[in-house]
Write a structure and sequence with these properties.
Layout: E1 4-10, E2 23-31, H1 34-42, H2 53-56, E3 62-65, E4 71-75, H3 77-89, H4 92-98, H5 100-107, H6 111-135, E5 139-145
Antiparallel strand pairs: 1-2, 1-5, 3-4, 4-5
Helix pairs in contact: 3-6
C-alpha cells in the first residue's frame, strides 16, 4: 500500500504541539496521488530536496516523525505564501511537458489519462488550498501516513 498525504491549514501562531487543535478550514486529501503530483511540480524523485519553491507545497518543510509510523511536514506562513505564489504562476501543462519523462517513469499506466483525470484536478485543488492558506496567513501541516 502506498503512502497517503493530507494537508491541513493551521493557525500560524499555534505551537507545533497544538497544531491539531489549531486546524482552520477543511483539509485537502491528496491520497496516493501526492507523489505523482510532486513529480509534476519538481521532476524526478531522486532530485527532491524539499527546499525549493516547487517542492514546498507537498514535500518541503520541517519533518517530525509520528508515533504511528508516519510523519508530519510543517511549513510556516511565509513558506505558505511562497508555495502559493509558485503554484499561482505555474502552468500545469508546461510542468507536465517539462517533467514528462519522470512522469512516464513514475506512472506505470496511461500517462495522459492519469494526468488529465487525476493530476490536473488535484493540482487545481492544491492551488486553491494554498491560495486560501496564503490569504489567511495560515501555516500548513502535512500528514504523510501508510
Amino acid at each position: 500500500m502506498s503512502a497517503t498525504l493530507i494537508l491541513y491549514r493551521v493557525d500560524a501562531d499555534a505551537s507545533p504541539s497544538d497544531s491539531v487543535t489549531a486546524v482552520v478550514g477543511d483539509p485537502l486529501t491528496l491520497g496516493q496521488s501526492w507523489d505523482l503530483l510532486q513529480t509534476v511540480l519538481a521532476g524526478d524523485q531522486s532530485g527532491w530536496t524539499g527546499r525549493t519553491d516547487a517542492e514546498l507545497a507537498i514535500v518541503g518543510g520541517r519533518t517530525t516523525p509520528t508515533t504511528a509510523g508516519g510523519m508530519l511536514i510543517s511549513i510556516d506562513d511565509v513558506q505558505v505564501r511562497r508555495a502559493a505564489a509558485h503554484l499561482a504562476q505555474s502552468s500545469f501543462s508546461e510542468l507536465v511537458t517539462r517533467h514528462r519523462r519522470a512522469l512516464e517513469s513514475a506512472c506505470g499506466g496511461d500517462v495522459e489519462q492519469i494526468v488529465n483525470e487525476d493530476l490536473l484536478p488535484r493540482f487545481e485543488e492544491l492551488r486553491s488550498f494554498y491560495r486560501a492558506a496564503a490569504e489567511a496567513r495560515n501555516a500548513v501541516v502535512k500528514r504523510l501516513s501508510g
